[in-house]
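Quick one, tokens below:
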């Protein structure tokens, strides 16, 4: 079973292949998710996990297209932990180029509609949102503890908030 941690930074999760654009963090693969292809065949990945990475990526199209291509259409899923647009931490980092809302994900499916009610096709993908959660991220105990609590289902306590998005590619594809 192939599981990917995209934008892993220094975090090492058991059983996950680490992908990052910075060779200094010693990932398994050094890739630029804005332009590089993921080195996996279609429908071969069971899980894609990314935490606090996508808000730094200028063009998300390649990331969502490549993730869609490699994810198993029957059983695979993608979990994204992103800063919620209403929290000050979303704007505090000057390197953030995206501010995520729940309506952002309308643009990841061909079934979505824009503000003018026209169908949206943002790329070669058609994601289905399985779950959207607003989580409180634990600050006490450090970054890693908060991430692990979020990943394994305990709702952590604390002040900062992030959106937790669980996506799946539809079975019909």
């Amino acid at each position: 079973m192939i599981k990917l941690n995209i934008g892993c930074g220094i975090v090492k999760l058991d059983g996950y292949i680490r992908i990052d654009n910075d060779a200094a963090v010693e990932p398994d693969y050094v890739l630029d998710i804005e332009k590089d292809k993921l080195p996996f065949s279609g429908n071969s990945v069971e899980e894609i996990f990314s935490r606090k990475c996508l808000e730094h990526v200028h063009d998300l199209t390649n990331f969502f297209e490549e993730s869609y291509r490699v994810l198993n259409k029957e059983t695979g899923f993608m979990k994204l932990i992103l800063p919620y647009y209403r929290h000050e931490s979303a704007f505090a980092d000057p390197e953030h180029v995206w501010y995520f809302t729940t309506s952002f994900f309308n643009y990841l499916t061909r079934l979505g509609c824009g503000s003018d009610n026209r169908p949206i096709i943002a790329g070669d993908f058609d994601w289905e949102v399985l779950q959207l959660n607003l989580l409180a991220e634990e600050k006490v105990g450090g970054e890693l503890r908060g991430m692990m609590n979020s990943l394994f289902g305990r709702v952590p306590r604390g002040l900062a908030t992030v959106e937790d998005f669980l996506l799946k590619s539809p079975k019909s594809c």
